[in-house]
Each structure stands twice: as C-alpha cells, then as structure tokens.
Amino acid sequence: MATVKHKILILSGKGGVGKSTFSAQLSFALAAMDFQVGLLDIDICGPSIPKMLGLEGQEIHQSNIGWSPVYVESNLGVMSIGFMLPNPDEPVIWRGPRKNALIKQFLKDVDWGELDFLVVDAPPGTSDEHISIGQFLQAAGLDGAIIVTTPQQVSLIDVRKEVNFCKKVGIEVLGVVENMSSLCQLLSDFKFLRMTDAGEQNDVTEWVLEYMREKAPELLNLVACSEVFDSSGGGATKMCKDMGVPFLGKVPLDPHLCKAAEEGRSCFTDSRCGVSAPALKRIIEKL
Ligand code: ADP
To answer: Keyword Transcription, does the record have it (predicted)?
Structure first.
C-alpha cells in the first residue's frame, strides 16, 4: 500500500444501487486521465467487477512479489475474488474471518506497483468486512469514502447508517452520489406505443420518428427524463444537508450505461452514453 498515493472506498447502504457500476466507471475515467489505477473488488459474495471491466474468465497470476492484478489497459489493473472462482455460478459461502483474511491478502499481497489511485468496491452495508477494510485502509492512509445511493427513502435510510458508520470509525465521507435519479433518454431512443381501445399496444416508433425527422428534427436530440423513483423526500441532496456531508451529484438511469456495464466497457468512449457520461464526469471532476 506504500506505493499507492490515493485510496478511495466506494460504499452503499443497499445492493443494486450502482456501486460497482460507479466504481468501474470511476476507474475507467481515472485511467483515461492517464493516472495509474487499481480497482479492488472486495464484494466477496457478489463480485461483478470482472464482468463490468470486460475481464470475465481471466485468472490471477502469481509473481515472485505477489499476486498480479488482471490488466484492462497498462494503467488499469483489477483484482477480484471473481478471478479465483472456478465456476461463476458457485456461491461463496464463507464466514467473516475467512473473508477478512482474503481482504487482508488483497491489500498486502497484490503487486499493484506504483498507483495514483486505488478504488475499492466494498460489499453493501456495514458488516464485518467494512470494519476490516476500514481499519486496514486507514492504517495505510485512506483518503475517504464515496457513498452511492438511489433517491428513494428506503435507500437513503441505509445511507444514513453508512454515513454514521463512517463517522464512528473515522472514515471521511468524500461525498454521496445519487444514482438512477431519473430515467433520461434521447427521444430518438424511445419506443413509441399507441394504445388501442381494446388495450392493445401498437408499435408506432418508426411512424413517430419519421414524423419528427420531417417536421421537427431538433426534437430527436431532446432528452426526456422521468422520475422513476420517488424523490419527494428531497433525495440525497437533502440527506447530505441534514447529515453535513458533501453531495457530489446525480447520475441518471441510462440504458446505455447499463449496456456499457453489461459489456464491460467504459461509457466515456461510447457516444450513446451522452446522458450519463457527462453527469459522471462532473462528479469525478469534483473529487
Ligand atoms: P451494486 O454494486 O450497488 O449492487 P450494480 O453496480 O451492480 O449495483 O448495478 C446494478 C445494475 O444496475 C447493473 O445491471 C448496472 O448495470 C445497472 N445500473 C447501475 N447504475 C445504472 C445507471 N445509472 N443507469 C442504468 N443502469 C444502471
């Protein structure tokens, strides 16, 4: 860890809010800025980082100074228990001490080399692993944590716990990201349906797009946003104000970001990620 300049922990109160997606895209972005980046996945029971970085089926190699990360590019190395599982469908049924031992090994025995940033994707919640990784990283000089949430109250209640966990164990909260804030899509990406009186749905996409192309082509570049999740309680912005932690920004629910994650790609090099990539960029620039 002595050769790693900055260490950032990515946390979430719940699973499925986009923590791994954010960790992966943050790592892609930092690598594209020519930093030397390591991405460590300690979500031992649900490691999705290998898939999100396009590294499924890869294996870790052992060198005489430790485990070698799997490289996406020369300046982006990844380590995950996902690389050690013979079968991706196999569950990892381990008790706390075994998980903690592996986390310790990931931090001590991986030959990261000189890194500008180590991004650590933690499991959701505030369990045994969080206490261990917090302690290990704090001893090695942790910069702080970024917490990812969605805007609805059920997610934010858990984020409050996460913030208080950080305060209790002395981890600085660098900020909170509100993911899947609203569903935002280019109008030209929509599927248009017309409901008949009998309740059938007719696909009239081509007809609508043709009409727009002819009558008002500028409409095709409009982004339509819809609040999918309830944010009437003020969402993460209000929660951050209440709890005195920085709010980093909102990332929309973007089908192209989901596709990029499914295919293990950076959304910053994908022109179709025109809605989510700028939002992620603004957040990363604040760090
Ligand atoms: P977590 O790490 O919090 O469990 P993931 O990062 O695995 O969550 O995300 C869960 C699913 O949601 C994944 O399929 C991911 O591609 C998708 N996803 C996450 N954030 C977004 C977003 N902003 N827009 C679209 N899909 C997203």
So the answer is: no
ipTM score of complex:
0.99
Q: 4-182+226-286 is classed in which CATH architecture?
A: 3-Layer(aba) Sandwich (3.40)
More confident residue, 16 or 101: 16
The Å distance, Cα 202 to ligand 1 centre, comes to: 30
171 CA from centroid of ligand 1 (Å):
25
The reported pTM is 0.92
For residue 283 and ligand 1, the question of a CB distance below 6 A is answered with: no
